[in-house]
Write the structure tokens for this entry.
Amino acid sequence: MTINRRALLSGMTGAAMLAPFLAIERAMAQHAGHGDHSGHTSAKGSPSLEEQQAMKARHDKLMTELYGDNLFKNEEVAMLLYPGFTALDLVGPHYFFACMFGAKVHLVTTEPDLKPVASDLGLAIAPTVTLEETPADLDVLFMPGGTKGTLDVMNSERIMDWVKDRASRAKNITSVCTGSMILAKAGLLDGKKATSHWATFPILADYGAIPTDERVVQDGNILTGAGVSAGLDFAIALVEQLRGRKYAETLVLQAEYDPEPPIKAGSLADASEDVGEMMELMFSPVAQEFRALAAS
Amino acid sequence: MTINRRALLSGMTGAAMLAPFLAIERAMAQHAGHGDHSGHTSAKGSPSLEEQQAMKARHDKLMTELYGDNLFKNEEVAMLLYPGFTALDLVGPHYFFACMFGAKVHLVTTEPDLKPVASDLGLAIAPTVTLEETPADLDVLFMPGGTKGTLDVMNSERIMDWVKDRASRAKNITSVCTGSMILAKAGLLDGKKATSHWATFPILADYGAIPTDERVVQDGNILTGAGVSAGLDFAIALVEQLRGRKYAETLVLQAEYDPEPPIKAGSLADASEDVGEMMELMFSPVAQEFRALAAS
């Protein structure tokens, strides 16, 4: 199999993995233009045209061997943007999803127009489609978390109807952080194992879900990740399911995901007692609001 | 010391850490409106007004004890947005920076207007200021990475002049991923220890820097992080310097940063040999372009 660059190009949502391909061809074109067919390494130590052709051939062969039919597919992925969402909940997974050749990653706004949607920390991301424009049949439906903004989504019949509709046909129903509260409110987690940010984790039970204390939790076609930064672990697990082990491994290497937290405090068990107590107190009013919505 | 909520509000760039405060006050106002001053836990198991007041007092006391003068400061942080930047390089650190009460986080576009800037994977982020509008004196100057887009920045005299100008007075000069190539091209890494994405790591030497194989590398006021996901580790290290250990620990807990990569392949040493070879071949043309710019 030869790599079909045209197919890659037409299907790409982005260009991170593509840029190097184009660079190969650009470099080869430049070499050709300079008439350098000597096969010798140039003065600057850059490979000759012949060396580059050999590298490209080897690269293409490895790609075929490593990924086979998983190299290029056409998943429809919808990630929800709503005012007050936590940007990192979404951008972590987006990196991995958008690096899947051929996948279409839709950034779906809950608002009537395509203006950038402000996250809880102010950073605003431009959506690509409205709720109505989102494909009806999705491979992945994804909910990021937040606090006040997430509660607003859960209180919106219009948005929750959309969530229920797309979830009814989605191949994978997914969330990171308090995004699982949205799935829970939609009745999608009834009797299902799931996780959430630690502040809302026990509240999953109020919605009939089974709080499961793992970083990434799978139950059938439902995949939920823990708080904020868990989106990276979550996305890698999902890419492995969609594209296989080697593809996921490639993206882990590309993202240089070899974490070394300078401080071990990522769970209530690991954080100092005073920091944990302060944060539990800080989140308790919002947690109460998430809890109250389970009864409504 | 009493927490000055007005000061917190006026200085906030975002609201992730603030939302819970507001929720406390909203809940208390609702309780007050309902005339519930009984001090008893309500039917739903939510705390009574008296309990909430006690929780708030305890919360405020802990905040004062934990953070002291570090609770609220006024750092000026500038993060560069350029066409083709890698969004996760920037959004990881943004989460931690924007959670520092009082810090002003500027998203600086290299473009002439404030239209959203498209990243390498298509996700576009709305800037808050142009190069010219960015404060002259910065506490933190931050460069995300990319591939083709990063090379374009390095080739732009206008943008590089801005980088050099702001760096000449910035208290902290920082980058994640190939963002260090921009700092290197600006001559800021001469004789300095630094890191980069693994694909460009050895090229730091071409610019006179000392490639240092750690996830986060400090040399004086220069702090560089490795590829993409290293932005989280990098940002936590910087928050600790700016706000102290307890503040950084709090954000680690809030972000639930207790990583569990499903696949251990985040470095060339850990990835399968075939995946590593494919990726080195894929990045080699771009790496050559970064190398060539060192000589120009």
